[in-house]
Design brief:
42% of the residues lie in helices and 19% in strands. The chain has nine helices and eleven strands. It has a five-stranded parallel beta sheet, with helices on both faces. The protein has a four-stranded antiparallel beta sheet with strand order 6-7-8-9, with no helix packed on it. It has a two-stranded antiparallel sheet with strand order 10-11.
Length: 243
């Protein structure tokens, strides 16, 4: 996975880069907000770790621009201590917020949880091998093509959120892809044929989302009768209601 770390402190960049590279991440670094945006537009970034106070373009503005165009997760770093600042960051689209000073290993753990960097993810009877790029049902490899797997991976990483065709194209095909947006529909159809149609939802005019499968109605616990209904039944008994 690709990580962008943007901070105007070179020592901080060096330390965090070592931690993330040790865990197998590809790391891009930036010393200011303008450079961070250029990297985001040139590469497929899965997670951006942004310092709030950066020269040229602030981290919070970079966060906003990323969220307008891309599906990358954003983790904000800041020395600010006010709850209002945290609220503003989350409102802008940040997925998490870490105050300085912090332990790099704690930041790494929170980053990994944020992008769900576990090897296997289980959903709807499927096992998705995030590192191996394969989708299984039981022990059977469903034989998903690379683009099909990447589409499912992207939807999994943003489960419950609607992703537009443009966002999916950027994330799966890359920013320099100049083909038709409808190729997303074709690959989604093929992916549904492999995994079943219940997980991926179509939102007309908006895009696609991945949703947790709901428990079948017959397996759900029966609900208690409401107080109003119970009272009406007692009243009927008292009046001797007959068929």
């Amino acid at each position: 996975m690709n990580i962008l770390i943007a901070d105007d402190d070179p020592d901080m960049l060096r330390i965090l880069t070592l931690y993330f590279q040790k865990e197998g991440f590809t790391v891009y670094t930036a010393l200011d907000g303008e450079e961070a945006l250029n990297i985001c537009f040139a590469h497929k970034i899965d997670l951006a770790v942004l310092d709030w106070m950066m020269p040229r373009v602030s981290g919070i503005r970079v966060c906003g621009e990323i969220k307008k165009r891309h599906a990358a997760k954003v983790l904000m770093l800041t020395a600010k201590s006010g709850s209002e600042d945290e609220w503003n960051a989350l409102l802008t689209g940040a997925d998490d917020y870490v105050r300085k000073p912090f332990e790099p290993k704690i930041l790494l753990l929170r980053a990994k949880k944020l992008i769900r960097a576990e090897r296997d993810i289980y959903i709807g009877g499927l096992r998705v091998d995030m590192e191996g790029g394969k989708i299984f049902r039981g022990e059977t490899d469903l034989g998903a093509a690379n683009k099909e797997f990447l589409l499912l991976k992207c939807l999994l990483e943003h489960k419950g959120k609607i992703l537009s065709r443009e966002t999916l194209l950027d994330h799966v095909w890359g920013f320099d892809y100049d083909g038709e947006e409808r190729t997303v529909d074709t690959h989604i159809r093929r992916l549904r044929e492999r995994i079943g149609g219940g997980l991926i939802k179509t939102h007309r005019g908006m895009g696609y989302s991945l949703e947790e499968p709901r428990e079948p109605r017959e397996l759900q616990e029966p609900q208690e009768p409401t107080r109003e209904l119970a009272g009406r039944k007692e009243q009927e008994k008292g009046h001797g209601v007959h068929e």
